[in-house]
Amino acid sequence: DMKTDLNLLLECLKYQMDCPLSQKEALITIYSICQQNSEASEYLREIGGLMFINDLAKSSAHCIVKEAALFTLGIIIESNVYCQQTLCTSALFEDLILFLIKKDSGVNLKRMSVYVILVLVSNNKNGQTCVRDTGCISLLLQLFRTTLSMSEKNLSDENTDPCYQLWCSVCSTLCACVNNPQNEDNQNICCSVFPHAKEWLETCTEPEIVRPICSFLGLTVANNSYVQKYFASIGGLDTLAKVLLELMHDSCLSHSSMKLAVVVTKTLDACIANNSAMGVVLAKYHTVSELLKLLSNETLSTGEKISIILTIGHCTEVCEENQCELLQNNGLPLMIQVLTESQDEELIKAATFVLQNCKQMSKLAFTALKMRVIVSISVAHIVTNQYFSIQERVQGEIFVDESSVANSKALKSQEVKPDDPKKYTEGTQKVVCCPQLTSKLNNQVLAPSLTSAPQKNETVNTMDAASTRQTEQRNIPCSVTELQTDSVPQSHNVNGKAACGKSRSDGLYFLVTFFLPHLGQHSFCSEKTEGVKSTSAISSSHKMADLRCLGCTAGGLSLNSKTFTKMLQRCLHRCEHHRAILEAEERYRGELRRVAAGNSNRSA
């Protein structure tokens, strides 16, 4: 009978105070009965055995009795929540602190004391508060830093090394202090040893060290943005990424390295889960590609796959570099494969999370491309319309000037020799030639220069002509029109041409700087000046008469944007202005083709 045995064992403890070995045996029997037996632990509490063992641990002069009593208390507390609440007092924590700070306390006694602290704070918010208020957590952090020496560590037989066992117990207790339930105050305190933990990871990648530290780091940073940012600020993410790289290089040779890489992956995920923007730190180490390699391992369990996929999801949530790396390493087909082949609901959710990130990235990229195409279309239409408007305006002004010139010549001819029919006819013929010469400026034909010598059958009053030319040349500057005709003196014509030239240069300069950014303002303006000079030289010569740009001579034709573009494509001698327009049109069509290709790929 269990109750009878516990009564007898309690009596033995009370009456064997001078025999530590008998007390130790009785304590071992008690914890074997109470282990994982909540009813037995509760009965021992009711008969006063729990408090008696607690007093025995504090008062006994024998170290073996203290150790056995503390271990038995831990077993009873772990198996029964009422016993945990009964012993969760500041007094007990203070007694345990004394065991830890006494110089004559052995490593095993400290280890048993840490074990009691562990079971007191596990799943117990009051215990987490007590461990902080009594300063016990600060003592545990000190043990974390000092128990195991980096220079003298010997992990060849960790199961028999008491210092290593104590250090592992401290790590487990610190994990319980910050987690389940999450305790942000304790998390903020525990982050003070992050630099020491980072140093450990930098100097040692043995599983015996990496596993406890990763467990402690993962639970300390969990759901705590402040602690996550602090860990990243001291280079903790960089260190974890380097450890993962090293383990992945060994994973092809060692199964244990692969399993340890999963542990490091879980820690990385905890460090960026609430601050996905910090995932950019991992991009320079190509962490996403390493995680994809790890995910392709066939020996992984479902839980391990979930952890890896969630880490990939948090890495790619807001970081474009990690998103591109995911796509470049065939991560998208792998996620789709997981989604279609798996039956586990949590695994499907994790894969869907990653695919959602890819979808969002594709949507943003498509939106940006679409905006560029829309801007290109708008600019192309504006420039094309502006071009035709300028052409029509210039053509209209030329026709007005032609009429003025014809009327002026006719009047002057009548005034000079009204009684000479022959000279009157010749003068009229000369005036009629002027509109033909000027109008053919837009039809790719140049008439013979009027500055050349007159024909034999012509008779001209040279004095009046010279006087007329001198008067006209005072009012207009040297230009292309001056080389074509010497009979256009009106200031209205000059001002109109200047306005049209300014509008044309403004529109074309905007076109060139938008679609051809490699052409600067200086080069564009210089090209326009050189173009005017070359046009003047061409119009004064008959050799280049058939090498004009079709776009410059199409003002009288009925054209739209489609036929105008085809005409420019057929032209072998395009001017700089129309070449810029054609390049803009080709660039716009190329953008449309790329968008259409992207849409067809996504639909496929």
Molecular structure report:
The protein is an all-alpha fold and 604 residues long. Helices cover 74% and strands 0% of the residues. It contains 29 helices and no strands. It has helices at residues 2-15, 20-34, 38-46, 49-59, 63-79, 81-87, 90-101, 107-121, 125-133, 136-146, 162-178, 184-190, 194-203, 207-221, 225-233, 236-251, 255-272, 287-295, 302-315, 320-328, 331-341, 345-416, 421-439, 462-475, 480-484, 491-515, 521-539, 561-570, 576-603. The chain is elongated, with a radius of gyration of 47 Å. The two termini are 74 Å apart.
The level of helicity is over 70%
- CATH architecture of the domain at 193-385, by name, is Alpha Horseshoe
**What is the number of helical segments per DSSP (H or I, 4+ residues)?**
29
Shape: elongated
Which residues sit in consecutive blocks of at least 5 with pLDDT less than 50?
365-370, 414-546
Order of SSEs, N→C?
HHHHHHHHHHHHHHHHHHHHHHHHHHHHH
Distance between the termini: 74 Å
CATH superfamily of the domain at 193-385: Leucine-rich Repeat Variant
The portion of residues forming beta strands comes to: under 5%
Query: Could you tell me the mean pLDDT?
Result: 76
Q: What is the number of E strands?
A: 0
Judged by helices, strands and strand pairing, the structural class is mainly alpha
User: What is the radius of gyration computed over CA atoms, rounded to a whole number of angstroms?
Assistant: 47 Å
- What CATH calls the topology of the domain at 193-385 is Leucine-rich Repeat Variant
- The first-level CATH class name of the domain at 193-385: Mainly Alpha
**Oligomeric status:** single chain
Summarize the biggest pleated sheet.
Answer: none
Protein name: TERB1 protein
Region (Disordered): 450-475
